[in-house]
Design a protein that fits this description.
The protein is of the alpha+beta class and 124 residues long. Helix content is 26%, strand content 40%. The strands form two sheets. Strands 1, 2, 5, 6 and 7 form a five-stranded mixed beta sheet that branches.
């Protein structure tokens, strides 16, 4: 990944980056490497906060042709290990943080409601 610039916009740290255009990538289905680009598009990924600011990664990625005539997939988008996943709008780091936060908040709610639930069951 090539980082073009990092700047603060509207209170967010924005990282503008792109992927190199000459690196071959394997097709997700047939695993045959391809460098033939179909197009590029921009993804906007929310990342874990840094220095009290939210972080957004504006990432330009390639859509590639699969060069295997026998493969059912005609094009595919490149993914960056540890940073992107198909249809993802958050980085895996932020996704794990939000998941852990959800577990903690749900546990607090259960702990608060638990005595009422157990009391009503023992009364019946």
């Amino acid at each position: 990944m090539l980082v073009a610039c990092i700047e603060v916009r509207d209170g967010l740290a924005v990282v503008e980056a792109s992927t190199p255009g000459s690196v071959p990538l394997p097709c997700p289905d047939c695993r045959i490497p391809s460098v033939r680009a179909h197009s590029r598009y921009e993804r906007h990924l929310a990342d874990a906060p840094c220095g009290g600011r939210g972080v957004v990664i504006e990432l330009s990625v390639r859509r590639l042709f699969c060069d295997n005539d026998g493969c059912p997939r005609v094009t595919f988008a490149e993914q960056i290990d540890g940073l992107t996943c198909r249809y993802g709008r958050r980085t895996p780091v932020l996704q794990r943080m939000l998941g852990a936060l959800g577990v903690v908040l749900a546990a607090r709610a259960v702990a608060r409601l638990g005595p009422y639930c157990w009391a009503s069951r023992s009364a019946g």
